[in-house]
Amino acid sequence: MLYPQRLGQFTKEHADTVAALLCGLLLFLGWFALHLGWLGFAFLLLPAAYVIGGYESAREGLTTLFKEKELDVDLLMIVAAIGAASLGLWRREYHLIIDGAILILIFAISGALEGYAMQRTERSIRSLMSLTPDTARVLLQGREEEIPISQLKVGDEIVVKPGELIPTDGIILSGYSTLNQAAITGESLPVEKTVGAEVFAGTLNGYGALQIKVHKPAQSSLIQRVIRLVEQAQTEEPPSQEFIDRFEKGYAKIIVVAGILLATLPPFLWGWDWETTIYRALTFLVVASPCALMAAIMPTLLSGIANGARQGILFKNGAQLEKIGKVRAIAFDKTGTLTTGQVQVFQVVSVSEYTQADVLKAAASVESYSEHPIGKAIVQAAGDLDLVGAIQVQAIPGQGIVGIAQEQQIIVGNAVFVQQYVTNLPEKLREIAQSWEQAGKTVVWVARGVEVMGVIAIADQVRSQAAATITRLKKLGVEQIVMLTGDNQETAHSVAKAVGIDQVYAQLLPEDKLDVIRRLQQQYQTVAMVGDGINDAPALAQASLGIAMGISGSDVALETADIVLMADKLEKIAVAMHLGRRSQLIVKQNIVVALGFILLLLVGNFLGNINLPIGVIGHEGSTVLVTLSGLRLLK
């Protein structure tokens, strides 16, 4: 019983695709029947192909005609196909019915591709909705009770345990923990928060239990604002699409008006007989059909998409391949995009009587008991060393950790914390620590007993190919490259300087990134955004072109973006731009060829030098020619 249900669901979700496949199958069977001389069987199959493949185009064309009083290419194609079929029946040249069916099949395939593109918005919104839990643990009269998020009210007190997602925005009433906010704010390091601090829905709680007071309705939370921003940005139609729509309607009007005039005036102006007039009018509709123009674009773009896929560049639709060749400005997210998104030990400096290994070994002996990301980075860096287990380890939230190893007290933490245990902080190490902090790095001091052993710099690592990518993009003619981040100014400028970016926007929330993209679009029109986190989703949707990191990227970033770099290789952006520019050149060449053929066929038809079969051959031949031309991008 499940198979019919699954089949029905598949048919419903992919109705346009099923219609195109059935149209193609019926067309082939009808052609085969004609070839064998089975006219009755062919006349059953081919009308079915017309109806199944052309229903959606006919419905849309008639809707546009009656509701908007406009003609479009959908209706023009149906008229041309029916005209070809009618002429085929009239003159008993049944191969013309096949030609009409081919025209309809092309449009059915185009409609299916468009349908898949329209589903992206719904998928991205569903991905965003899944980032927050469905329920929250609320304190009611001293007892914990789970209720749906939608039932939360301002003033409710909720409990969030270690490792859980924060269900809604709120203020911490009690508890201390580190929260991973990278997906929301883009901060590379987990943020330590305690009483009085604001927390955001969708962020991940660390090791401490928190009691939180809801201070705004759940629908007003930051993550819900992100959802609305994505919805709004993805439904805004770009100017280029509006231009294409206007061109399509104008082209259809010209062809229809010209067809009507050609079907009525020649007998009065030039003395043509009505059979010749109608014959040439129908031939005109066939040769003027924009199939060659459509084939001038889609095969080229699909070939470019296939080429990109082989190189780890996933274009979600052909329009994005065109756009990336026109990009004039690019905005990069920092955390997880220009950087790896994972904190690591950047540098270790020791005092003269200790080595760097001594400092790492001592720090790791106590940090091995910590769940803090900085502690884990230190332990990872000391992985090859022979660690000695510490005892009596005690962590002081927000300050540091102490323990006893080899009968000596080990202190690891910030300067203020370590200074409580040691006689003094060496001046040379103070200067080094200050320079690290100015560069946006986190400084960890390490002491044994009352003596400082050294300092450790913790930082998010810049991707090895980031600087080369920025240089390459500038050589390709990108006019403006900026960096957007929720991190602090010092860290942001440090990373920007390392990769060669001059313009930096720091401490941004998702709506702030969206505003920057809009300002760039006003100045540069075609703007690309490269990101990986949930906080990047509105900017990715608003940008002319959204590019997401495939491995480190969040699900919503991958859904919202137009292009995905499957292996997180930034240098592939330059490859994609080159591919986009090649596709633009080939499309322009194909359009010239397609229009040239149409013009020659129209002139030949008007002068009476071609008949309908020659017109169909010329029409289909030009379509095949530009299709083969588009396949050049497969190389």
Key features of this structure:
single chain; 635 residues; alpha+beta; 7-stranded mixed β-sheet; 6-stranded antiparallel β-sheet
How would you characterize this protein structure?
The chain has 635 residues and is of the alpha+beta class. The protein has a 7-stranded mixed beta sheet, with helices on both faces. A 6-stranded antiparallel beta sheet has the order 12-17-16-15-14-13, with helices on both faces. Helix 11 packs antiparallel against helix 25. The relative contact order is 0.11.
Q: Which spans have pLDDT < 50 for at least 5 consecutive residues? A: none
Task: Give the distance, in angstroms, between the N- and C-terminal Cα atoms.
Answer: 47 Å
Q: Quick check: average pLDDT?
A: 81
Share of helical residues:
55-70%
Computed CA radius of gyration, to the nearest angstrom: 33 Å
Name the beta content range. 15-25%
Outline the fold blueprint.
Blueprint lengths: L1 H12 L1 H22 L2 H29 L5 H19 L3 H24 L1 H10 L5 E6 L2 E6 L8 E4 L9 E5 L2 E4 L1 H4 L5 E3 L4 E2 L4 E2 L4 E5 L7 H14 L3 H26 L1 H4 L4 H15 L2 H5 L2 H13 L2 E3 L2 H7 L4 E5 H5 E12 L5 H12 L5 H9 L9 E6 L3 E6 L2 E6 L1 H5 L7 H12 L3 E7 L2 E12 L3 H10 L4 E5 L4 H11 L3 E3 L4 H15 L2 E5 L5 H6 L2 E5 L5 H6 L2 E3 L6 H36 L4 H19 L5
Helix pairs in contact: 2-3, 2-5, 3-4, 3-5, 4-5, 4-11, 6-8, 9-11, 11-25, 11-26, 13-14, 13-25, 13-26, 14-25, 16-17, 25-26
